[in-house]
Amino acid sequence: MSFSRRRWWPLAALAVAAALLWYFWLAPDNQGPELVTAPVEHADIEDSVTALGTLEPLNYVDVGTQVSGQLEKLHVEEGEQVEEGQLLAEIDATIYLAKVEATEAQLENLQAQLADREATQVLARLQAERQRNLIKLDATSQEAVEQADATLRSATAQIAALKAQIRQLESQLKEAKADLSYTRIYAPMTGTVVDQLANQGQTLNANQTAPIIVQIADLSTMTVRTQVSEADITQLKVGMPVWFTTLGQPDLRREGVLRQILPTPEVVNNVVLFNALFDVPNPDGKLLPQMSAQVFFVKAAADNVLTVPVAALKPLQRGPGSGPERRYAVQVLENGVPQQRVVRVGTMTRVSAEVLEGLAAGDEVVISGGATASPAAERGPRRPRF
């Protein structure tokens, strides 16, 4: 038994020595973090401000009634296409028609009175003229002359009063006819009935405000009303490109140009939001009022350019440069060893950056797990520590 132990002891010592040799000299260094890399490749890049918006028609009109009464007939319904001048609704015209007829009758009465007074005036003028001729011959008295002149003046005054009353009634008749015409409501524009706010048989009161019956909108061009936070609004400029998607068509990109930034903000839950507006054509009618939109205001964009993940960029000691050309440090794998390079980038997003100088397509850059080393740093075999 003693001989057997002495025989295996050298073999065990040799095995331990071999294991230590492999661990300290030949085994890979697994104590450092695992390197995660990504390739430098060509891609499209876009730096944009994102916001949520709501679609609304560019042109629309609320169609109401200018007179009170019962909505007797409604000739259209929501969603229907209408043409300018098309009859939309009718208000009960009984009262307004009666008013027109009564005013016309009063006007006819005054016109008859005027004709009578004009005949009286003619007779009074003849009598006054006769009395003036007789006074020259001393065939009448001065009192008779004065009486004839007074009768003529009275007839003339009565005619003037009747003419004034006739003008007043003509004005009232014009108003009555206008009210009668308002009982028939026509479309002021070509478009789509997007909302119906009154029902047939409903009594409408126009004494204070004009009741709205329907809303007509031109859906051929839509406006996207976007709410932008005060932190981002300074990055927007009128005329900049903008695009959006809708929930129903998330893969369809629709483009436009920023038309207007409204100066008065809205405060929602203590958050200050500014409205930015842009228009988009809607020839297929797929865009409808009140749809939600994910909006992207494009500050800068480049197509098919070299890009590098932002996670691979590390600030230089002097800090990143300002302006469109910024410099950063990156670690690039060369023969499996990370080497530091300085790169110049252009357009940047939260995910990637445009490479202007310092990298080539296919380079593998370290995005995590790399050590902060000098440009010439290399990893050698780990030395034994005792």
Structure write-up:
Residues 106-183 form the Multidrug resistance protein MdtA-like alpha-helical hairpin domain. Residues 221-295 form the Multidrug resistance protein MdtA-like beta-barrel domain. Its main location: membrane. The protein is of the alpha+beta class. Among the domains are: 36-43 and 303-368, conserved putative lor/sdh protein from methanococcus maripaludis s2 fold (Beta Barrel), CATH 2.40.420.20; 50-58 and 219-301, Efflux pump adaptor protein, beta barrel domain (Elongation Factor Tu (Ef-tu), domain 3), CATH 2.40.30.170; 97-163. It is built from 3 helices and 18 strands. It has helices at 2-26, 94-136, 142-182, and strands spanning 36-39, 41-64, 69-74, 81-82, 87-91, 184-186, 191-196, 203-204, 212-229, 241-246, 254-261, 266-268, 271-281, 292-309, 326-334, 337-348, 352-357, 364-368. The strands form 3 sheets. It has a 6-stranded antiparallel β-barrel with strand order 2-9-13-11-10-14. Strands 6-5-3-8 form a 4-stranded antiparallel sheet. A two-stranded antiparallel sheet has the order 1-18. Helix 2 runs antiparallel to helix 3 (142-182). The chain is rod-shaped, with a radius of gyration of 47 Å. 20% of the residues are buried.
Keywords:
single chain; 386 residues; alpha+beta; conserved putative lor/sdh protein from methanococcus maripaludis s2 fold; Elongation Factor Tu (Ef-tu), domain 3; 6-stranded antiparallel barrel; 4-stranded antiparallel β-sheet; 18 strands; 28% helix; disordered C terminus
